[in-house]
Specification:
The protein is of the alpha/beta class and about 950 residues long. It contains 40 helices and 36 strands. Strands 28, 29, 30, 31, 32, 33, 34, 35 and 36 form a nine-stranded mixed beta sheet that branches. Strands 1-7-6-5-2-3-4-8 form an eight-stranded mixed beta sheet, sandwiched between helices. The protein has a seven-stranded parallel beta sheet with strand order 11-12-10-13-14-9-15. Pfam families: DUF3427, DUF8090, Helicase_C, PLDc_2, ResIII.
Length: about 950
């Protein structure tokens, strides 16, 4: 039966019909599962040859969500049509201005009364797909609202697609082309029937600055309770870590209100912040104006009950002596990560308040100063970017990773000459991209972060020459000049301020609606700081546009790291986070142009993310935060570094600590082998069974555990298990599961043996238990593995898209492990499980095989595979695959992007079935020119590979 016929039969006649391509799909936004209509649309845009969208309502944010895909289509010469309306006055003039500037999209306006259609039609290579339902082209409809949509597919001669096409062509013929003249006329008479701004305000968090009575938001409520509890422990200092724009100043005022200070001192590092901070405190604390005063270069109101001071002034001996050390019982320091400076140290040492509160968005410092130590390691509350977006505390942002200027194969990099950065062609290129991706309301109020002072100055000059009012600011400009340019930007007198470094932090310009990055990503911290300059909510904007011009920079790998919040430094994760960006919360979105993705991938390939220098840097940062030698569990809980990276490098955490001179005890050679076994084999947490048994032995120090007691333990811990799982657990812990070489290597540290259907501790383990440092290190590994195990569902041995090593897959499937992993090679079979491990794109210089295998995806649900050589149609494994019957055939894939990759994990793609008519014996040449027999066959996957994963696995990256 034809593929589409099978799909329709499965959807509308019999759901058990074996079909996995072109299936109809019911689409509902599910933020918890990161499953959105937007993802389906974006993937269809990537594959289409043309498109036709017919929607009543379009917002700039909805249009932004597909702009990167439209830009990639334009590069391929692919165009499409959008039909929309003026129904209810929902579509604002600005969205029509954005639409008319799309180079590969023809737009028309339907004059039909009550036009309310919502459909997306895509012409693919061999079929059409169309999505019809309730979703307009708005960000809420694409990603957040409860919407119903159905995706169907059809061949060209299908009646449904023919009817839709005919109808669209008729509607198109009767509609009005969108032109600049039409927009000018529309603006003259535009009057929304539905008040769009009112709708926006109803769906946004209330702007605190507009309220007479202010109440704490969710974040502030929790932080206030934590601060109160902290002071209840007699703590004298506390730290708040809160993303820019989440209301730190109001939080400080709320805490001052609950503290009820006799006198309060609020310290900032810039005078321009003082008046705003004081106004916020007045709203919360109330009282006469005479209670409030400023101590700065321009004001000396030193007797005020609530004193707001700049650090430059309050740190001077004259003023400290006049105030006195005990003048304030409550002191707050804003942007406290600057406290490593001498002026801050001097001030903190001088005043003796009952409580000192520090606030920062970025406590991790590149200058080595330990903020956590300064506040006695008391972090009262912490909320980072992703959490703040989830709580709707920040303005949504649309991030576009776009390719920077390139000419004659020469790309922007860290060493590019200034003349290349500011030549006329690059300026025109930048302006074209900035205009294409635009901003809310189409009137830019943007900050442009440059790499050099000369670049900022010259680009500002060239933008002005192009008719785009701009200015530039660097560390050379004084405070008055900075405040002047910020005011000009907010009032719309200029569109851009080009800057170097000075706006990374500590500046509040709520009306900024566009961030442009023209520099190398120096660190994840600075990236988030610069991104955060636009995230403060303001009535003037619904979202912020972030345009990141990605050159050929070594640090490009930091971009997905910063956006996803994944600091694990796992290369495979970073690649996936570049392609599958559904992790972004709320109405924010991330899009990379194709070439920009390739530059990030190239950076990931080259980066040394597990170097000892990198690992030690993360270790020191975490130790500074905790004030003690961190364990693997600390790394896991803080999300600062994946413990598996350390173990992959050093085999045990003890070995790592010894290497950097931080070990707090010593292990014997046998103890270290035992620790290595648990670390290397079990830390990943792919199943909890072995770890639970180990924890039980180490906590109780009992000597034996029977099968029955083990199963009872699993029940008590609410762990799903089968009889095979229990037997496998015993085999693993006794080492009998492992192949001979590994078993021999681990035997000196053997922890258990099997005796009379019991797991029995060895004499070695009894001896090991006498070493408290060994116990501590071992429990740390066990507890970390148990935390990791929570990401697995547990009721199935393997989960689709999770990563497994070969031996882990065999362990979970209770298969035999009789040869080492290299010996397993591409596949092995036992216990009615046939596991196939494929490394795609092994590279031109791959030397591990005598023969070049051409395993490949034919599409999302079909995989072509070759046996080892020499094999014939009658070889044992082929006999199994010809008649699989009760055999389960599993596919594991990893992608090798460069020879530097040392990934050993494979993504599990589920079970598959051989297509019997494709099984064929062939001859293939070896590297020495001989021909050897192999068998080729195609498989049908039970679950088609999801689009983002498919792109991730098959994507060809050019060096």
């Amino acid at each position: 039966m034809d593929v589409l016929e099978l799909a329709l039969k499965k959807a509308f006649i019999d759901q058990v019909t074996p079909s996995d391509k072109l299936n109809p799909k019911f689409i509902i936004n599910n933020p918890k599962k990161h499953d959105f209509l937007l993802t389906t649309l974006q993937n269809d845009f990537k594959q289409c040859r043309s498109f036709f969208i017919s929607v009543a309502f379009i917002t700039q944010s909805g249009l932004n969500a597909i702009k990167a895909q439209l830009a990639d289509l334009a590069q391929k010469g692919i165009s499409g049509k959008i039909l929309t309306s003026t129904y209810l006055g929902f579509n604002q003039p600005e969205v029509f201005e954005s639409l008319v500037n799309l180079p590969n999209v023809e737009v028309r306006i339907s004059e039909k009364e009550g036009f309310h259609s919502k459909g997306y039609l895509f012409e693919m290579e061999d079929h059409h797909s169309f999505i019809i339902g309730s979703s307009n082209l708005t960000m809420s409809a694409l990603k957040q609202n409860y919407e119903w949509n159905v995706k169907l597919t059809s061949y060209d001669n299908g009646e449904m697609i023919s009817s839709i096409r005919t109808h669209l062509e008729e509607e198109w013929a009767e509609s009005t082309p969108l032109t600049n003249e039409w927009i000018c006329e529309f603006k003259r008479y535009y009057q929304p029937v539905i008040n769009v701004q009112m709708i926006h305000q109803m769906t946004m968090t209330v702007n605190e600055d507009r309220q007479d009575y202010i109440v704490p938001n969710k974040m502030q409520q929790v932080a206030l309770k934590n601060l109160k509890d902290l002071r209840g422990t007699k703590a004298k200092r506390g730290l708040i870590v809160s993303a820019t724009g989440t209301g730190k100043t109001y939080l400080a005022a709320f805490d001052a209100r609950q503290f009820k200070p006799k006198r309060m001192l609020f310290i900032v590092h810039r005078e321009q912040i003082l008046k705003k901070a004081m106004a916020s405190f007045k709203k919360i604390l109330g009282g006469p104006d005479s209670d409030y005063g400023i101590l700065s270069g321009n004001s000396k109101e030193m007797t005020a009950k609530y004193l707001f001071a700049t650090i430059q002034t309050v740190s001077k001996d004259t003023y400290q002596e006049q105030l006195g050390a005990k003048a304030f019982d409550y002191v707050l320091i804003d942007e406290v990560h600057k406290a490593g400076a001498a002026s801050y140290q001097k001030t903190i040492d001088f005043f003796e308040p009952d409580f000192l509160l520090g606030m920062t968005a970025t406590p991790e410092r590149t200058d080595g100063f330990n903020i956590f130590e300064l506040f006695d390691y008391h972090v009262a509350y912490e909320i980072r970017l992703q959490e703040a977006l989830e709580e709707d505390l920040l303005c949504p942002f649309h991030y576009f990773g776009v390719t920077d200027y390139e000419k004659n194969g020469l790309m922007i990099n860290e060493t590019s000459d200034l003349s290349y950065l500011v030549n006329q062609e690059r300026v025109s290129f930048l302006i074209e991209k900035i205009n294409y991706y635009g901003c809310y309301g189409n009137q830019a109020k943007g900050l442009v972060f440059c790499s050099r002072k000369e670049e900022a100055k010259e680009l500002s000059h060239l933008f002005n020459k192009k008719g785009i009012p701009s200015s530039y600011l660097t560390g050379d400009h004084d405070l008055d000049k900075r405040e002047l340019e910020i005011t000009r930007l907010e009032e719309g007198k200029i569109n851009y301020i080009f800057t170097v470094d000075i706006f990374n932090e500590g500046i509040d310009i709520p009306k900024v609606n566009q961030i442009v990055m023209l520099r190398n990503t120096e660190s994840s911290i600075i990236f988030i700081q610069q991104l955060g300059r636009g995230l403060r909510k303001d009535d003037s904007k619904e979202f912020v546009t972030v345009i990141d011009f990605i050159g050929n920079y070594k640090n490009n790998y930091m971009i997905p790291m910063a956006l996803s919040g994944d600091s694990s430094r796992n290369k495979s994760n970073l690649r996936r986070d570049t392609i599958d960006v559904t992790y972004m919360s709320g109405l924010s979105a991330i899009n990379f142009e194709q070439v920009a993705k390739e530059r990030i991938f190239s950076s990931i390939d080259q980066a040394k993310l597990d170097s000892m220098a990198e690992l030690k840097k993360h270790y020191i940062a975490l130790k500074n935060r905790l004030n003690y030698v961190p364990g693997l569990l600390n790394f896991e809980e803080q999300g600062s570094l994946d413990p598996l990276i350390i173990i992959g490098k050093e085999k045990t955490y003890y070995q790592f600590l010894t290497r950097i001179g931080e070990a707090e005890g010593s292990l014997s050679e046998m103890e270290e082998i035992a620790l290595k076994f648990v670390s290397v084999e079990l830390l990943s947490g792919i199943r909890p069974h072995e770890l639970v048994v180990l924890a039980h032995f180490f906590e109780t120090k009992r000597k034996t555990l029977s099968y029955q007691e083990m199963k009872q333990l699993f029940k008590e811990k609410d762990i799903y298990f089968t009889e095979d799982d229990a037997q496998s657990t015993v085999k693993v812990l006794s080492l009998s599961f492992y192949e001979a070489v590994q078993q021999r290597n681990y035997m000196p540290g053997q922890l258990f043996r099997i005796e009379d259907d019991c797991l029995v501790v060895t004499d070695k383990l009894k001896q090991f238990w006498l070493n408290t440092y060994f116990n501590r290190l071992m429990l740390d590994v066990i507890e970390t593995g148990l935390v990791k195990s929570q990401r697995y569902m547990g009721h199935t041995p393997l989960e689709i898209y999770q990563k497994y090593r070969r031996k882990d897959a065999l362990r979970l499937l209770n298969m035999d492990f009789k040869q080492n992993e290299q010996g397993i090679g591409g596949y092995t079979f036992s216990n009615h499980h046939f596991t196939i491990f494929v490394t795609l794109d092994k590279g031109k210089d791959f030397k591990a095989s005598l023969m070049a295998y051409e395993d490949e995806f034919l599409d999302e649900s079909t995989f072509r595979w070759f046996t080892k050589s020499p094999r014939t149609i009658n070889s044992p494994e082929v006999e199994i695959l010809k008649q699989p019957d009760d055999w389960h055939i599993h596919l594991f894939i990893k992608r090798k992007y460069s020879q530097k990759d040392n990934e050993i994990d494979f993504y599990y793609l589920g079970e598959m079935t051989p297509i019997k008519e494709t099984i064929e014996q062939k001859q293939k040449p070896t590297t020495d020119g001989k021909l050897k027999n192999v068998v080729e066959m195609d498989f049908k996957l039970a679950n088609p590979v999801e689009s983002n994963m498919y792109e991730f696995l098959i994507k060809v990256i050019e060096d």
